[in-house]
């Protein structure tokens, strides 16, 4: 059977079993905050399982496009390296929404596989959920008993929670499952080793082909399980694996799902596919034919490649395919877009979106290939050099600064660097790279829409940085270039003798003035590029070859270097207080404040922060003189006890900065004595990333301003309170406020009591049920208390309260427990919330929603009366 016949036979079978055949939902999810992509067949039916929507039919079957490249279900790294993992795949599925359950689902699966598709029964094994004591889940005895009537008991295998309890994500519908595995080995291989021993052991010819999920629970955000309103069946059969089994192949890629694509790649590349797992050429072909499907259908479903979110995932998949084809197939020109036509022929009859959007898909892919291939060639050479250098340094981690330079300077994607590094058994310094990215974002704002002209070189002169020793110098412009951006026209200059510190090591670049007897130019920023110290000025001198005087903005430099020196003292203090696991992971040093990122897994306590502050300020008051070792061998510096920051790349000779026991390798500017720092104050402490904490702090002039502002605020408070004892006056206000709040709450409760009696008598009999729809101005807390009381006291009731408290619309719905199977508070409140332009939710028995449109409460009221 061809793949198209297999797909059709599946759908025809379930149509004969009274299933409604529905089309695949889009692979890209636009309105589900928990998922970027449809990662399973059941995604489009999630609201049915949760009871939020009514199914279009109690029995449904389809083939669903799925994508697993991020989150919990991530198969990307396995793709191409084995015979059966894919990014995009088709999931054949049959669904029951409160209709049949385990018995029929098992019977359907067995009949289809063995009688319709003709898979020999002796080649099949099944697994059932063995239970899990940690979640109080029993063994799935029902599934075991039903399977016994179809297959011998020695082919029914207990499976653990990992394999036999299916969950679509961190939260959502879930339940025990029963997998069907097929043994595709030769008789000789089967005689040597029983298939029982190979199930769920990643054997390429003993694979899971179908998973029958029995949806019974909903995994809540707090990880607890709650029973779904009804029992459902959710099955998923891997279309590609089924084709492998039915076409007698040992690899998904040998089926006609992929062979037309492979043939096209062979034609375009001139490379022959042999199917060898370890062959890099064959791996590349498998990656290409797999990834083109994922990218093409994602674009067809409306997701263009981009630098963020789902678009970034698609771009990464595409670039992975391009890099493999570039490196192992020798494809230096765009060609992936030519595969879209093959996909249209293969899959168009079942997935019309690829037919309709084929031109767009091709053009987008070609554009992406063109763009990426322009950056890839030189980048790959540089990455290889970086990898070799890292290996020769006996390291396993590529330094973040180098990886970022590849990304920022040469446009080489960090994800490709990461992929290539992983292939060599290496990683990149992720946290350091993130810190570099953060700095880059700040730079990109200033550089956006910027046009940079070529350098104009003047008289050849030696170019030196003298800023460690002086903040003014006589100098010449050695070269300049024009820069145009949204703010106007500027010039970048390189000086023969520059006192301006270039942005680096976390420290901001210097500003200042470049002047002579007749002209003066503002130095707006200073950066380093390809070894050059470049200052940006607001004009071009009439005589660029004249002698100039360069002057650093003294106040900013003084404050910046105070903050830089204090980061060294802070680093040492953190290690003293928290432990030697603390390492700097990034910093920002400017004239206004400093930011220091460091490795630590817990939020710092107030006591720890106070102790760190105390230690740093103690060092400041000690008047410790700077000891600078400007150019010493790195080993000597390390022998002296200098800290080398993890991920930084150092030369043979380094600069070591020492303040007493604090010793670090550093290229920044520093105070000559710690007493110049003045005072250190931590402003905030928080999380920068997983395992990385961030401190923001001030020193020098800014710390003086901080305490001056505090004094002014206290003086103002003293005036307002008409008391010099500010603390006691505020305590008195708090006591009075607490007392008044208690009185208000008591009044609210009295009012609520009166409302309860009135509301109890206001229920309207609707058949054998009771409905209360009531408007009120009570606050949300009072309404909640009343609704819960009414739920308990009024049987077979639905209670809907519409509140306009504080001028904000609020809808509250309560459903008595005896109606929980028939009415869902969450579904009701979501429907009514549309009238107030809002949203909300809850559980089947209680739900709330807020909104923006107060006038919509009347419409919601009328709508509620008709429930």
Automatic annotation (TrEMBL):
One Gene Ontology term of the molecular function aspect: aminoacyl-tRNA deacylase activity
Annotated Zn(2+) binding sites: 564, 568, 666, 670
Signal peptide as annotated in the record: none
Known function: Catalyzes the attachment of alanine to tRNA(Ala) in a two-step reaction: alanine is first activated by ATP to form Ala-AMP and then transferred to the acceptor end of tRNA(Ala). Also edits incorrectly charged Ser-tRNA(Ala) and Gly-tRNA(Ala) via its editing domain.
Organism: Chryseobacterium angstadtii
Catalysed reaction equations from the record: tRNA(Ala) + L-alanine + ATP = L-alanyl-tRNA(Ala) + AMP + diphosphate
Co-factor requirement: Zn(2+)
Cofactor note: Binds 1 zinc ion per subunit.
A Gene Ontology BP annotation from the UniProt entry: alanyl-tRNA aminoacylation
Keywords, comma-separated and alphabetical: Aminoacyl-tRNA synthetase, ATP-binding, Cytoplasm, Ligase, Metal-binding, Nucleotide-binding, Protein biosynthesis, RNA-binding, tRNA-binding, Zinc
Protein name per Swiss-Prot or TrEMBL: Alanine--tRNA ligase
Family, per entry: Belongs to the class-II aminoacyl-tRNA synthetase family.
Residue ranges that the Swiss-Prot or TrEMBL entry lists as coiled coil: none
Domain notes from UniProt: Consists of three domains; the N-terminal catalytic domain, the editing domain and the C-terminal C-Ala domain. The editing domain removes incorrectly charged amino acids, while the C-Ala domain, along with tRNA(Ala), serves as a bridge to cooperatively bring together the editing and aminoacylation centers thus stimulating deacylation of misacylated tRNAs.
Keyword tRNA-binding: yes
């Amino acid at each position: 059977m061809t793949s198209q016949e297999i797909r059709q036979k599946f759908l025809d079978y379930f149509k004969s079993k009274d299933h409604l055949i529905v089309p695949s939902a889009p692979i890209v999810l636009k309105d589900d905050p928990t998922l970027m992509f449809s990662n399973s067949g059941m995604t489009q039916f999630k609201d049915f399982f949760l009871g939020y929507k009514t199914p279009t039919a109690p029995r449904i079957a389809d083939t669903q496009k799925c994508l697993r490249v991020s989150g919990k279900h991530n198969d990307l790294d396995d793709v191409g390296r084995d015979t059966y993992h894919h990014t995009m795949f088709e999931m054949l599925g049959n669904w029951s929404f409160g209709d049949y359950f385990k018995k029929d689902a098992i019977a359907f699966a067995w009949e289809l596989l063995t009688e319709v598709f003709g898979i020999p029964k002796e080649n099949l094994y099944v697994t059932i959920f063995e239970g899990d004591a940690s979640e109080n889940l029993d063994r799935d005895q029902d599934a075991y008993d039903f399977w016994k009537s179809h297959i011998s008991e020695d082919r029914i295998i207990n499976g653990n929670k990992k394999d036999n309890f299916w969950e679509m994500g961190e939260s959502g519908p879930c339940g025990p499952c029963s997998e069907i595995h097929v043994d595709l080995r030769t008789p000789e291989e089967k005689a040597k080793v029983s298939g029982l021993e190979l199930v769920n052991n990643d054997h390429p010819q003993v694979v899971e082909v179908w998973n029958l999920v029995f949806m019974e629970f909903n995994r809540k955000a707090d990880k607890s399980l709650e029973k779904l309103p009804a029992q459902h069946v959710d099955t998923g059969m891997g279309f590609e694996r089924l084709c492998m089994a039915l076409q007698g192949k040992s690899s998904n890629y040998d089926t006609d799902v992929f062979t037309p694509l492979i043939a096209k790649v062979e034609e375009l590349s001139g490379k022959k596919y042999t199917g060898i797992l370890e062959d890099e050429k064959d791996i590349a072909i498998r990656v290409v034919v797999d990834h083109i499907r994922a990218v093409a259908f994602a674009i067809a479903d409306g997701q263009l490649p981009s630098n963020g979110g789902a678009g970034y995932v698609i771009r990464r998949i595409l670039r992975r395919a391009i890099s493999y084809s570039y490196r192992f197939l020798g494809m230096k020109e765009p060609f992936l877009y030519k595969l879209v036509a093959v996909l249209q022929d293969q899959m168009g009859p079942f997935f019309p979106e690829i037919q309709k959007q084929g031109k767009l898909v091709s053009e987008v892919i070609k554009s992406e290939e063109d763009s990426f291939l322009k950056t890839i060639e030189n980048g790959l050479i540089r990455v290889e050099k970086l990898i070799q250098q890292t290996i020769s340094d006996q390291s396993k981690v590529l330094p973040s600064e180098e990886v970022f330079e590849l990304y920022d300077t040469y446009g080489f994607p960090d994800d490709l660097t990461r992929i290539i590094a992983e292939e060599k058994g290496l990683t990149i310094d992720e946290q350091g790279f993130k810190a570099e990215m953060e700095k880059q974002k700040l730079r990109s704002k200033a550089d956006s829409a910027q046009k940079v002209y070529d350098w104009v070189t003047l008289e050849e002169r030696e170019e030196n940085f003298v800023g460690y020793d002086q903040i003014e110098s006589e100098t010449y412009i050695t070269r300049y270039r024009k820069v145009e951006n949204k703010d106007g026209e500027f010039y970048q200059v390189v000086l023969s003798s520059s006192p301006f510190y270039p942005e680096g090591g976390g420290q901001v670049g210097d500003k200042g003035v470049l002047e002579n007897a007749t002209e003066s130019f503002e130095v707006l920023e200073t950066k380093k590029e390809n070894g050059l110290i470049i200052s940006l000025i607001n004009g071009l001198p009439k005589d660029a070859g004249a002698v100039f005087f360069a002057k650093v903005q003294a106040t900013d430099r003084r404050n910046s270097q105070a903050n830089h020196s204090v980061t060294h003292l802070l680093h040492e203090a953190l290690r003293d207080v928290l432990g030697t696991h603390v390492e700097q992971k990034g910093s920002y040093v400017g004239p206004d404040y400093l930011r220091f990122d460091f490795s630590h897994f817990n939020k710092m306590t107030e006591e720890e922060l106070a102790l760190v502050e105390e230690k740093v300020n103690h060092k400041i008051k000690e008047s410790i003189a700077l000891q600078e070792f400007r150019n010493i061998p790195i080993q000597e510096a390390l022998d002296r006890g200098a800290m080398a920051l993890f991920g930084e790349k150092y030369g043979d000779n380094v600069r070591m900065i020492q303040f007493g026991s604090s010793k670090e390798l550093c290229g920044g500017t520093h105070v000559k004595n710690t007493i110049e720092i003045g005072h250190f104050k931590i402003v905030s402490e928080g999380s920068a990333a997983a395992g990385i904490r961030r401190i923001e702090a001030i020193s020098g002039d800014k710390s003086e301003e901080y305490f001056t502002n505090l004094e002014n605020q206290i003086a103002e408070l003293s005036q307002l309170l008409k008391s010099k004892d500010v603390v006691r006056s505020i305590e008195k206000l708090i006591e009075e406020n607490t007392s008044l709040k208690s009185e208000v709450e008591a009044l609210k409760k009295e009012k609520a009591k009166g409302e309860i009696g009135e509301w109890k008598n206001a229920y309207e009999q609707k058949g054998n049920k009771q409905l209360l729809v009531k408007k009120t101005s009570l606050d949300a807390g009072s309404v909640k208390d009343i609704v819960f009381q009414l739920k308990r006291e009024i049987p077979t009731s639905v209670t809907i309260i519409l509140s306009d408290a504080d001028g904000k619309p609020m809808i509250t719905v309560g459903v008595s427990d005896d109606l929980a199977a028939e009415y869902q508070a969450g579904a009701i409140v979501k429907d009514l919330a549309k009238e107030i332009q809002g949203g909300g939710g809850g559980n089947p028995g209680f739900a709330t929603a807020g909104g923006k449109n107060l006038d919509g409460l009347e419409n919601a009221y009328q709508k509620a009366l008709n429930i």
